[in-house]
Design a protein that fits this description.
238 residues; alpha/beta; 2 domains; 8 strands
Length: 238
């Protein structure tokens, strides 16, 4: 049975991942990085590594430049925050699950400073019981540290939890701690972004289903509202 759910944030609850990754991609390429198509925004590399880890991969070790680009990144994200929004069903689903008595938390690869900017805009913390960020743990995803701490904060054991995320790193982290895993595959996400006038860079939106990783999750869904239906409702104790 399930006592709590931990959610990834970007591209799971809110539509922000490509915006942030595009900002980071622009900063790297403007400073001489030659990034292959397979490692551009939308790839598992961008989804699973923190900004300092991406910097070291694409630029190298340069503490002064890292500090400069980190500051520029925060400024750019702050400018773009008004464009970030919840997916249409997210608020309804979170409220319904929380009102049912389930404990909810978020485990995100964003830094606390970036999350706080998002929270000021979207009031994410009003909808869940706890939020854990990349700098709250030693190892980011796909290590399970982020989700483990997110469950610790709501006092739910991994074996009594569901992890919901969109990327292979989310599912790998959830499986590593023996939680039930749910992968949300938003195949229409590229079209959704295009309709909003957002550029889709080459190599983006190669869905996890196409990459053959959805089989690593216990369940695959296309919309968060499916969490309010069977087989999930029968897993909840409340």
């Amino acid at each position: 049975m399930v006592d709590g759910i931990v959610f990834d944030l970007d591209d799971t609850l809110i539509d922000s991942e490509m915006l942030i990754e595009s900002i980071e991609y622009g900063l790297f390429t403007a400073n001489g990085a030659d990034i292959s198509a397979s490692e551009r925004p939308g790839s598992e590399i961008f989804r699973s590594l923190s900004f300092p880890e991406l910097f070291e991969r694409f630029i190298g070790r340069d503490e002064n430049l890292l500090k400069k680009l980190s500051s520029e990144r925060s400024d750019r994200i702050a400018e773009e925050i008004p464009k970030i929004e919840f997916f249409p069903e997210s608020i309804e689903v979170l409220k319904t699950l929380k009102n049912s008595g389930l404990k909810l938390s978020v485990g995100t690869g964003n830094s606390r400073s970036v999350f706080n900017l998002m929270d000021d805009q979207l009031h994410i913390t009003d909808l869940v019981d706890a939020v854990v960020c990349r700098d709250d743990v030693k190892n980011g995803k796909p290590a399970p540290d982020t989700f483990l701490k997110a469950l610790e904060e709501i006092k739910v054991a991994p074996v009594a939890a569901i992890v919901v995320g969109d990327s292979a790193s989310d599912i790998e982290a959830g499986n590593a701690m023996h939680a039930k895993t749910v992968q949300i595959v938003r195949q229409a996400h590229a079209d959704y972004q295009a309709k909003r006038g957002n550029a889709v860079l080459p190599g983006a939106f190669a869905t996890t289903e196409m990459e053959g990783v959805t089989s690593k999750a216990d369940y695959t869904i296309r919309n968060l509202r499916e969490l309010l239906e069977e087989p999930f409702t029968s897993l909840f104790k409340v």
